[in-house]
Design a protein that fits this description.
The complex is a heterodimer of chains A (about 525) and B (about 210). Chain A is of the alpha+beta class and about 525 residues long. Chain A has 16 helices and 20 strands. Chain A has three domains: about 200 residues, 3-Layer(bba) Sandwich (FAD/NAD(P)-binding domain); about 150 residues, 2-Layer Sandwich (Guanine Nucleotide Dissociation Inhibitor, domain 2), CATH 3.30.519.10; about 110 residues, Guanine Nucleotide Dissociation Inhibitor, domain 1, CATH 1.10.405. Chain A has an eight-stranded mixed sheet with strand order 4-19-15-18-17-16-8-9, sandwiched between helices. In chain A, strands 1, 2, 11, 12, 13, 14 and 20 form a seven-stranded mixed sheet that branches. A three-stranded antiparallel sheet of chain A has the order 6-10-7, with helices on one face. In chain A, strand 1, helix 1 and strand 2 form a beta-alpha-beta unit. In chain A, helix 1 crosses helix 15 and helix 10 packs across helix 12. Chain B is of the alpha/beta class and about 210 residues long. Chain B has a single domain, classed as P-loop containing nucleotide triphosphate hydrolases (Rossmann fold, 3-Layer(aba) Sandwich). Chain B has a six-stranded mixed sheet, sandwiched between helices. Chain B starts with 6 loop residues before the first strand and ends in a 25-residue tail after the last helix. The relative contact order of chain B is 0.18. Classes of the chains: A alpha+beta (about 525), B alpha/beta (about 210). Chain A: Keywords: Cytoplasm, GTPase activation.
Chain lengths: ~525, ~210
């Protein structure tokens, strides 16, 4: 099968991460002839989602393959539950549909339901009016994906979890702030969203480089309100400057009221679905897909009169293209400019728990923005997703933590985990204030999100995921790369709906003879 | 069962490259056939309304978009499938042999709740051609051995049995669906569109 892979393409894309996939779709959409490869057997690269089995393989790979260690290190996995549950503990689990007792989970039960887990390597949210949502809609790629709204934004205030009032309805409904504070908060939020550029300029001209916190204090906000705006709405820290604070708050507020009560959407089955949506569009427009296809060698050749091609050796094939788009995780080192890029690595953790961090009527989907604790410099972003997102079996929640790395992932994140989970193991059914952590993994990820220069004009290196909450930088970079490859062309114009496509009639002569099917005659031809 | 609410069925078509998946879909939905498809280009998904008993059913039929050619269909393609059509070419025995692995692949990737009773249909396509190499008997035997999967011999080119096969697909999927409704696995999902009409009813979310 491999051998009939065509050898000449206008664009070859290596790696199926977010940026690579968007570029592939954009090129194919406007008629470029695209080949899209990935060295592994699944889509997404550093942006992939794994089921529990896939995740175990990933962990094994990280621990054994030195090449993987460049991307992921300090990985530690831990179980807080038994390998198997003794029979009597299971007995209470009957067919009785009224209030079934909480399932007692074991490692074996995780393994049995491994397919129901979709755990993201790069969990991210979409702002409802952010660039990715707009792109999905305008390109019509949205038809390949489904989403759920984040139902609440929480923060950590006075040693407990507190919902952040972010919409007008929330502000009025909340009991945690006084009438006077409500008025202050509304005024503040309205000013950030409603003011014109000029008014903004006037308002902030003396503040831009100063701390956002000082501005909020200057405006007379109470400490509680400052906390909400600074940490939860702007997602900042004490050091955040006013320009960034206003920009981030505006982004948050502008996305309210489109799909739900918060500004955020979460992709069903996880962020790893999104690259696949772009890949499908690429394929629909003729892009050729080949997973499990590592590349061995990349050469840059000048053909004549300044025209150059990229020649790729992959297994026994030689592939030629005018442009190579390659993910940072697939890219041979000699293609990258050796200049070091400044970056902070990322501390990440994933937890599987037996309940939500804060109970609610319907299954919640939560963004928790932890302010820095214990004198840390940066806050921690926490995402809690439940079975309704297709992330895990019923009765469980998957919780992600993401922060800038200071020491190592476990040291950086454990203090936050301990505040919201019971990490002690033990009886899963004992009444407890906090959900039990059943399984966890901590790891550091190399931040490869800085743009990297390649050594040739027609080789375009795509960055890896950043620590940010959204996909905005990936979309932006993909568009930049596309514009370099296809100058003057439209970036992902709307794809027609299937019913708008008119199939040509000319090749339809219709039946020219009647024929009955007689199996017996044909049997002799078998095999 | 008496519910008259509209039902949307996601149907996916699988099988080796060149067995006629796109043509079958196009024959069923658009009543058209073209010899010119080399590999699948522009084929995405097509929708068609059919009536099964007294219910209106919208079938959304998803093509592989050619990603099956080098075994590169991603798991996203399989999500939420209500039924699966497996196609082989009666003139190409290898495509018949592949059915087993396509079925397995589907069950692994889509991981339906009840794999033993998941609605599959097998289509032996291109019966209009003379160089037939897989007999109906052999195909039927295989289908029987797999929990009695319905089998149809089709010709996308001459529109033989295409309508009937898809009707059966819809009917069988619907029989499953009534049970699935009870589970209603993931309600309230959001589809993005320009009109923002998914807006939550819970009142005024505008911050200004």
């Amino acid at each position: 099968m491999d051998d009939d892979l065509p050898s000449d393409f206008q664009v070859i894309v290596v790696g199926t991460g977010m940026v690579e996939s968007i570029v592939a779709a954009a090129c194919s959409r406007i008629g470029k002839n695209v080949l899209h490869l990935d060295s592994s057997d699944h889509y997404g690269g550093l942006w992939a989602s794994y089921n529990f089995d896939g995740l175990q393989k990933f962990i094994k790979e990280v621990n054994s393959d030195p090449k993987r260690k460049e991307q992921v290190y300090n990985l530690s996995e831990k179980w807080y539950i038994e390998k198997d549950v003794p029979e009597e503990a299971e007995e209470s689990k009957t067919e009785d549909k009224s209030e079934p007792p909480k399932k007692v989970w074991s490692q074996t039960k995780f393994a049995a339901e491994y397919r129901k887990f979709n755990i993201d390597m790069t969990p991210k949210l979409l702002f409802s009016r952010g660039p990715l949502v707009e792109l999905l809609i305008s390109s019509n790629i949205a038809r390949y994906a489904e989403f759920r709204c984040v139902t609440r934004v929480l923060t950590w205030l006075d040693d407990r979890l507190t919902p952040v009032p972010c919409s007008r309805a929330d502000v009025f409904a909340t009991e945690t702030v006084s009438i006077l504070e409500k008025r202050q908060l509304m005024k503040m939020l309205t000013a950030i969203v409603g003011n014109t550029e000029e008014e903004m300029e006037q308002e902030f001209k003396d503040w831009n480089e100063k701390p956002f916190k000082d501005y909020l204090t200057h405006k007379g906000l109470t400490p509680n309100l400052i906390h909400y705006v600074l940490f939860a709405i702007a997602g900042g820290s004490d050091k955040m400057n006013c320009r960034d604070g206003v920009r981030e708050s505006k982004k948050f507020l502008m996305s309210l009221g489109r799909y739900g009560n918060t500004p955020f959407l979460w992709p069903m089955y996880g962020s790893g679905e999104l690259p696949q949506c772009f890949c499908r569009l690429c394929a629909v427009f003729g892009g050729v897909y080949c997973l499990n296809r590592p590349i061995d060698k990349v050469e840059h050749k000048v053909v004549d009169e300044g025209k150059s091609v990229v020649v790729i050796e992959s297994r026994s094939n030689t592939l030629n293209c005018d442009h190579l788009v390659i993910g940072i995780n697939e890219c041979p080192k000699d293609l990258i400019s050796p200049e070091p890029v400044e970056c902070t690595d990322i501390s990440k953790a994933v937890f599987v728990t037996n309940g939500t961090i804060m109970s609610s009527e319907k299954e919640p989907l939560t963004l928790l923005r932890f302010p820095p604790l214990d004198g840390a410099e940066h806050g921690v972003t926490v995402l809690e997703v439940g079975p309704a997102t297709g992330s895990c079996p019923k009765g469980l929640f998957v919780v992600y933590m993401i922060a800038n790395k200071t020491a190592d992932a476990e040291t950086d994140l454990m203090p936050y985990a301990q505040r919201i989970f019971d990490m002690s193991g033990g009886d899963q059914n004992e009444p407890a204030e906090k959900p039990k952590c059943l399984w966890s993994v901590f790891y550091n990820a190399h931040d490869s999100s800085a743009p990297v220069a390649s050594l040739a004009d027609n080789v375009h290196v795509c960055s890896g995921p950043d620590a940010g909450l959204d996909f905005d930088r990936a979309v932006e970079q993909a568009e930049q790369i596309f514009k370099k490859i296809c100058p003057g062309e439209e970036f992902l114009p709307r794809a027609p709906d299937p019913e708008e496509i008119v199939f040509e009639d000319d090749a339809t002569p219709g039946p020219d003879f009647e024929r009955t099917i007689d199996d017996e005659d044909e049997q002799k031809n078998e095999e | 069962m008496s519910s008259r609410k509209k039902v949307l069925l996601k149907v996916i078509i699988l099988g080796d490259s060149g067995v006629g998946k796109t043509s079958l879909m196009n024959q069923f939905v658009n009543k058209k056939f073209s010899n010119q498809y080399k590999a699948t280009i522009g084929a995405d998904f097509l929708t068609k309304e059919v009536i099964v008993d007294d219910r209106i059913v919208t079938m959304q039929i998803w093509d592989t978009a050619g990603q099956e050619r080098f075994q590169s269909l991603g798991v996203a393609f399989y999500r939420g499938a209500d039924c699966c059509v497996l196609v082989f070419d009666v003139t190409a025995p290898n495509t018949f042999k592949s059915l087993e692995s396509w079925r397995d692949e589907f069950l692994i990737q889509a991981s339906p709740r009840d794999p033993d009773n998941f609605p599959f249909v097998i289509l032996g396509n291109k019966v209009d051609l003379d160089n037939r190499a897989v007999s109906a008997k052999r195909a039927q035997q295989w289908c029987q051995s797999k929990n009695d999967i319905p089998y149809f011999e089709t010709s996308a080119k001459e529109a033989v049995n295409v309508e009937l096969a898809f009707q059966t697909i819809a009917r069988n999927a619907l029989a499953q669906e009534t049970e699935a409704e009870l589970y209603n696995e993931f309600p309230d999902q959001i589809k993005l569109n320009a009109n923002d009409n998914n807006r939550n009813r819970d009142g005024d979310n505008c911050a200004c």
